[in-house]
Fold this protein.
Amino acid sequence: MRSYRLEGLGGTECLVMRVEVRPEPRPQEIVVRVRATSLNRRDTMILNGTYPLTPRRGIVPLSDGAGEVVAIGDDVTRFAVGDRVTGSYFARWIDGRINAGLIDQLGCTLDGMLGEYAVLDEQWAVRVPEHLDWREAATLSCAGLTAWNALTGAEIPKPGQWVLVIGSGGVSLFALQFAKLLGCRVVAVTSRAEKVGKLRAMGADLVVSSTDMPEWGAMVHDETGGIDLTVETGGPPTFAQSMIASALYGRIVLLTIQDAKGATVQIPGAVYQRSLATIGRLFVGSRANLETMLNAVSAHRLRPVIDKVFPFTEARDAYRYFQQGDVFGKVVIDGA
């Protein structure tokens, strides 16, 4: 079998394809024939050495992938050969709150999905909705679940309330889709004029070009009466505008501070003084969260947005394309 491994950090030259022996499952493991994988921002951070969790040297990268079970261990009860599955991002976090003993991640401290086959403990996997093809099913574990928990992890926004999303990456588009599923109205902020029409076509009620209007916060507040929930993926540069746009008791889920080491989030004093917004944080989610999200995806037959697909042998090109940042949806790598 062929697998990619990270032999060091610092760039795509560290991503090396290896030919290895096809794995056999231990008693509580399943072997998955991987049909597709997808990239997330954390994967490029791991590659560049800017991720807060230190990856294991020689790790098989990527948390997100989907495929069918081709072998099971003698003690496996949750799956059968032929089941369509994906892995859970924090593999050992089944439910409840996360703690220091549950931080292992596929594609970082545990071998991930960028190989012809993947071996998962049966507790680390979930079934994927039948209506999704392999490429779509491979996009959900990180970006999809992050967006889902940003909207549903605390106070779920009510129908008619306003949700703000920034950019057109995986998390942002999933957040837009889930917000519309919940009956919310959505403001989408983009720096690319050519994406305005695409965001409207996805259901965004108001699309703002940050190129034309860098200081967009006040306008958004005036147009909406204040944003109830902001899924903040653009920080630190966009954070002040998100605060300005927020309703008095709005919520801001601050997901990232980009890839820069030492980046800081600054709140203008005048904005802070007049706001009672709650700023929250989340770490993707548990297996139970993932199962709940996938049930919703299945019930509503939601389909992820895919920007571009690369062959398995061009995984380095997929990383480079993703790192350019000008994507609309998910970047997928087909199985070997």
Summary: The two ends are 9 Å apart (CA to CA). The mean pLDDT is 94. The chain is about 25% helix and 25% strand. The longest helix spans residues 287-300.
